[in-house]
Amino acid sequence: MKARQGAGESPCSQRKGWMMMGNRADEIRKRIARRKKMNDGASREYPVVPLVGDEEKYGIGQSSFEGGPPSDGHPLFKKETFLLKVLASGILVLLTAIMFKSPSPAFEEARAVVHKTMENDFQFAAVSTWYEDQFGKPLALLPDTGKQEAKEETAISMPATGKVVENFKTNGQGIMLETGLGEEVGAMKGGLVIFAGKKDDLGNTVVIQHADKSESWYGHLEAIDVKQYEKVEKGGAVGKVSAAEDEATGEFYFAIKMGEEFVDPVQVISFD
Prior knowledge:
This protein is an alpha+beta fold and about 270 residues long. It has 6 helices and 10 strands; from the N terminus they run αααααβαβββββββββ. The chain has helices at about 10-45, 55, 80-100, 110-120, 125-135, 170; strands at about 165, 175-180, 185, 190-200, 205-210, 215-225, 230, 235-245, 250-260, 260-265. The chain is rod-shaped.
């Protein structure tokens, strides 16, 4: 570029200088516009990702990532874990049912463990009584608007009229009672039948579990009138006595169990 001329330069030269300066200014403006356009394009191509806060990072609050926990769900609830537990429970129930249906002796020990757990460890009668106190009869979908049944009396009913012919000291578990031939045996208290079948040395036997976690046993029965897991009321028939050796009288076995120990029924009920 030529050096700037003095004040005496011609008007033509001045116009030429102004045009050159105008062209340079236009070029600078075009460069600025091109740079701005390039910067805007880069911003659209690579969007700025906002930083993830602690609440979103640990699943608290609404997540902005696909597959994150729902905004209204509990942060500790996992659907996959819940479904897995449901599936495992179903498989366990199915295997238990197969085990009890199979006659194989290989399952005998496992069946005994399950049977003991269901009879002794899980208190069916206590749970049933609590459920009815809270919600009414089982499977009741509507509240009972009528008068509620009176609660079972705490008094004990004599299972059958008879006299003791074999006392508690004989076997340390129960007593033998002599009754009339064909007499019915009733439950000493209301409860749930946890066993109805044959037992070694007792023959046909019924075991009833009561709400206070005690059990009453009725053995040497000629016939059983209840089914397992059936609820019976106090004095309700559980079976009939078997015939004694003389075939003129009847007899049956009676025992009371508190926890893991048998107690003398004579100390609980007055017999002849």
